[in-house]
Amino acid sequence: MVRSLRIGHRRFVLTPGVNTIGRDPASTVCINDASVSRNHARITISGADATLEDLKSKNGTQIMGSTIKVPSALRDGDEIEFGHVKGWFIVEASEDPPTTTGLS
After folding, report:
1. CB-CB contact of 35 with 59 (8 Å)
2. 52 against 100, higher pLDDT
3. Which residues contact 94 (CB under 8 A, 6 or more apart)?
4. In the prediction, which pLDDT does 100 show?
5. pLDDT digit string, tens, across residues 43-83
6. CA-based nearest residue to 35, from 2, 64, 7, 10
7. Beta-carbon count within 10 A of 69 CB
8. Measuring CA to CA, which residue among 51, 46, 26 is closest to residue 38?
9. pLDDT bucket at 104, cuts 50 / 70 / 90
10. CA atoms 64, 68, 70, 71: torsion sign
11. How far is CA 34 from the centre of its chain?
12. What is the Cα–Cα distance from 52 to 4, expressed in whole angstroms?
């Protein structure tokens, strides 16, 4: 399975282990938006499970419109908000990889 985070027209492939999200250019998913903290959140991929955790960000993290306070499971198609930036968690079959990977 290929797990990715889609934000606008960009798709970021998530790897097993910890994937960081934030304004920090070293983040796995770098989001250059003032509402996103430097180290905003992380998605951990472990086997078939994916967990989203807010890293005490200033503007919070939401899954399907609900602010998360503890690490929360992600499901295919979940809408995630990092501050004011919306994204979607996508799970695809490995034989159908995303068209774009990493930063563009």
Report:
1. yes
2. 52
3. 1, 2
4. 54
5. 999 999 999 999 999 999 999 999 999 999 999 999 999 99
6. 7
7. 10
8. 26
9. very low
10. positive
11. 17
12. 13
Q: Cα dist. 60→32, 40, 54, 76 in Å?
A: 16, 8, 7, 21
**Cα–Cα distance between 55 and 43 in angstroms, integer?**
11
Beta strands in 47-94 (DSSP E): 49-54, 61-63, 66-67, 72-73, 79-82, 85-92
Q: Which of 45, 44, 28, 24 is nearest to 36 (CA)?
A: 24
User: Could you tell me what percent of the chain has a pLDDT over 90?
Assistant: 87
Token pair listed for 89: 């968690």
Structure tokens belonging to residue 44? 């951990």
Region at 8 (left for phi over 0; alpha for psi -120 to 50; beta for the rest): left
The tokens describing 6, both together, are: 């889609």
Could you tell me the CA-to-CA distances from 103 to 17, 25, 64 in Å, in that order? 19, 10, 25
